[in-house]
Amino acid sequence: MRILLGITGGIAAYKAAGLLRALAELGHDVTALPTQNALRFIGEATLEALSGKNIDSELYADVASVRHVQLGQEADMVVIAPATAAFLGRYAAGIADDLLLNAILASDADVAVVPAMHTEMWQNEATVSNVELLRSRGIRVMEPASGRLTGEDSGPGRLPEVEEIIDFLFANSPLAGMTVTVTAGGTREPIDDVRYIGNRSSGKMGIELAKAARDLGAKVKLIACNLSNTPKGMTVVHVEDVGQLDKELEQASDVLVMAAAVSDYRVGNRYSGKLSRSPVPELKLTATPDLLAKYTDKNPESVAIGFALIDDSQDLVEVAREKLRSKKAKAIVGNRASTLDRDDTSVQFVTENDSAEISGTKQEVARAIMSRVAAEMYV
User: What is the pTM of this model?
Assistant: First the structure.
């Protein structure tokens, strides 16, 4: 998820570094946007090191690229932490007098505000009114924590701990509290100690599905079949063949997305060592178990989503629906063999009573699929 992290000028600004790090470690693409007053409390170098991006809070810098609008339009979520009383007042009044407020007003993303200030300022009638107004507009405002403030003061107004802020940010996500297992990549069935039967799966779609589930608030387990580059913010288990994958699927989850390309056959007479070129060996293939059907039989309460790669000459929806019934899945995502190795794709999301075409980049399609999966959780 692309998160714009706004930081305003209060003493708690230094704590934004911990929030920035935590969001990045969860795999989110975070852009830090401090106000010029915030930079009195936390340095640009710290924010640049943690985000890996240049920091520029100047409203009139890079005007040609319309950055004050672009920053807001590119964000999937806007978070302001800490948010001062002065910021709340300007935001409630719609005053865009700096780069941060311009970006927020130009964005249609979900906005979450995490205030931090002295108790008297938080309880002041003006602040209370501004918070009520923002909430009435759909802005999520987190209640500050109680505790030690600047100096000897103590009371409500303290910036909550990072873990509490993250829980607040994703509490309303469609898959919050859900466990989602995603399989990605392609299995390899060994012929001997160096050769294998494999497939052309890149794992790109499975990885994007895992990221989309993570961004919707799920606790994700990614079972990576022969993949080296995997995303952050989830549990990753590496496997090679069908047997290892089967073992990892013994643990049930609320949702299973079976996106990996699983071999239909394994070598029944696997050789030890390395086969020589001559004489030519005769391979005896045996069928591998249908892992999705096995999983749904064992875990009927789980929402299972299968994938089916269908020949261009076949009726995609008809074949997908046949697999849906035979595997007892909630939905089958059908795609054509011609889409292999492409960055963009077109799939059919097929359920018992409906089908919908989803097209776009693999990231866009993955997000649309997981949104539909989230909707299926409440059917």
Answer: 0.80
